[in-house]
Amino acid sequence: MSIWEYANPKKFMALSTRALPWAVGLTVVLLAVGLVWGFFFTPDDYKQGSTVKIIYLHVPAAMMAINVWIMMLVTSLVWIVRRHHVSALAAKAAAPVGLTFTLIALLTGALWGQPMWGTWWAWDPRLTSFLILTLFYFGYMALWAAIEDPDTAADLTSILCLVGSVFALLSRYAVNFWNQGLHQGASLSLDRQENVSNVFWLPLLVCIAGFALLFVTMVLLRTQTEIRARRLKALLARERVA
Amino acid sequence: MPDLGKYAFAVLGSYLATAFLIAALVGLTLWQSARTKRALAEVEARQGTSDG
């Protein structure tokens, strides 16, 4: 049994159809528990007041915005090296999900930043690299839409994905590279000293798991749609030739 | 409902904006899925082919 077997569209469709109900159920449960716990049952922060409740949206969305791009990078590399169509379609399917997380992170960040920093936006290294990552998401989706031949589109978008990965990594590590700007360091770290307090940390972990599963659910469903669309295109082409 | 004080706009705005964006993503995904499934089923029925 090899992981590459799932690069076969039929096997992927069978496995994802079985996995989807579980993914949907877990997503709903984790998001409901995490968000209700965070919103209703955690105290205000001594410095940030009730705005700390935005952490349950902002941190998971920002983490996933970067992680989705990394997933797209891995599947794009699989496409470049092994030419598995499912991997290219999975990258294509993931982009709108990543873009949604990016927009959520930007919007909640602006809404959080205004009362805390006194500004909606600052040209801070992390914020700026995150904004560029957003533009890469738009560019990636536009490139897929602009190219007729799917293999050429997969090739070119994979290269774009490689380039955009620089900004995905910068978004995560910019705070460490440049000791300037308004944005604070990581909210979650292997170093317990750097982590947010336990009372916020546990519901935050549940929300992160919920956002991750939302991503899995959306990508499974969207990849299935891309595989069906590809088959539809092939059947219509055959019909035209016959 | 917890008392959000002077930050009510920021907190509720964040939750509403997130709910709207996620609902739009889920809605669009389900709509595209249903549309593609229907179109593929029609073509498969016409051509007498099925991929399971």
Structural description of this entry:
Chain A: Required for the export of heme to the periplasm for the biogenesis of c-type cytochromes. Chain A: Keywords: Cell inner membrane, Cell membrane, Cytochrome c-type biogenesis, Membrane, Transmembrane, Transmembrane helix, Transport. Chain A: It is found in: Cell inner membrane; Membrane. The complex is a heterodimer of chains A (242) and B (52). Chain A has 242 residues and is mostly helical. In chain A, 77% of the residues lie in helices and 0% in strands. Chain A has six helices and no strands. In chain A, helix 2 packs across helix 5 and helix 3 runs antiparallel to helix 4. Chain A is globular. With 52 residues, chain B is mainly alpha-helical. Helices cover 77% and strands 0% of the residues of chain B. Chains A and B meet through helix 1, helix 2, helix 3 and helix 6 of A and helix 1 of B.
SSE blueprint and pairings:
The complex is a heterodimer of chains A (242) and B (52).
Chain A: H1 9-40, H2 55-82, H3 85-117, H4 125-146, H5 150-177, H6 198-241
Chain B: H1 8-47
